[in-house]
Amino acid sequence: MIFSSSVLTKIGFSVLSKIVAFAFEKTMESISKNEKMISVLKKCGLPLRPENEFESIYAHTLVKYSVECKNKDFADFFAEKEIWEAFRIKFLSSYDEFKEKINTYLNIGDDRFMKIRSAGYRNVDDLKIEIERFSRIFDETIKEAMSPSDIKLLSGQEQALENTDNIKDDIKYIKDFLKDNIDVSGEFLKKSKELLDQKEYDKARIWLEELNKTHLDSNEKKWKYFNNLGVAHLGIGNDKEAANYLIEALKYNLEDQNALENAAFGYHIKNDNKKVRELAKKLIEIDKSSVIANQLMVLSCDTLEEALNYFETIPLEIRHKDRVAGAIAFKYYQDNDFENALKWYDVAIKERPQDKELISFYADAVLRKINEKNNSNLPLTEKDEKEAEESIDIF
Fold first, then answer.
1. Is 71's pLDDT higher than 90?
2. Does pLDDT of 8 surpass 50?
3. Which of 6, 67, 170, 262 could bridge to 246 as Cys pair (CB 3.0-4.6 Å)?
4. How far apart are CA 46 and CA 2, in angstroms?
């Protein structure tokens, strides 16, 4: 059984207490942290990976915290209804209200903390430290519950915020630069390309957005401007903005293979499969063996059956290229056929072993496959449990 929001609320908070009780059983003392987590999750009927909803995220957070915590009284604290409610507020993005609720709870003048104090913790400052630790695990679990693409978007947004402090210095440097250069647009485009090659996506965005578009005196420069701006936004996780710029860039370079590929990817972000297919067909006319064109054709199919029918027409050596293998794996993944998804993700990862997005989808598919088996009351093999541990480590 998986605890959905309604189920967890209906049966009350005894589930949270059970998590703590199982985590502190004597039998848990001799096994590894990951083995403890899997054991507690299975005993409580929770999926190996949290669902993207508060109740599941909180329960998983409590499991992670409890298997590491040395003091059961602290773990019991996070099974309290008031604390559960406070973290629900945090989940809904109201951090100030969350902090206020926690502080109100800590200042209650009764004997609520006598058990903790009697265990050697003299004041609530120790408890505040534990709340911060639990809160960090909670934030990590929220990310774990997201789809890999959501994680990528969030990471890009966080990176953009980290770069904000440098923006004023960059703009000052740009303005000084303008005084001494005649071919403004050419130098801006050259500099932005250098920054993109260095994966300095937010700095490249700043350079491009400071450029007055009236300096773009040729279609080639306009294409480079919008294309580079699209790539920069993609790098910082602004997928929707990136899609608009990549599509705009195509207007100024209609026959270029790179422009067609990037615009097709822009339409893919927008879920406009009809336009993706239209551009992918143009790319195949240019180069039948284009890996990216075939990847896009697979991704643009509306159903798994349609994708498989097209996939069979692709030459065998192209099917096993990382992008095409990853595309058919994703179609299987979307259709909840995790066994075949894993088969093709494995092919893709062999060519791109450092690709974090592929690895994230692979790990997610492993956990979903095992969850299905667990929910069907089928016994988990040692291989299943080992794969689950490795996938949890990835997240």
1. no
2. no
3. 262
4. 5
Instruction: Report the distance separating Cα 192 and Cα 229, nearest Å.
Output: 9
Q: Residues 102, 88: contact at Cβ < 8 Å?
A: no
The CB-side HSE value for 363 (13 A sphere, CA atoms) comes to 21
**Cβ(223)–Cβ(187) under 8 Å?**
no
| CA pair distance 277, 272, nearest whole angstrom | 9
Mean pLDDT of the chain: 80
> In this structure, what token pair is assigned to residue 15?
């589930």
Other CB atoms within a 10 A radius of the CB of residue 363 amount to: 22
Q: Which residues contact 78 (CB under 8 A, 6 or more apart)?
A: 16, 61, 62, 65, 84, 134
The pTM of this model reads 0.58
Q: Which two tokens stand for residue 92?
A: 């809904």
Distance CA 29, CA 10 (A): 32
pLDDT in tens, 298-315: 999 999 999 999 999 999
Token pair belonging to 21:
């009780």
Give the C-alpha separation, 62 to 130, whole Å: 12
**Distance of alpha carbon 230 from alpha carbon 247, whole angstroms:** 9
Torsions phi, psi for 390 (to 5 deg): -65, -40
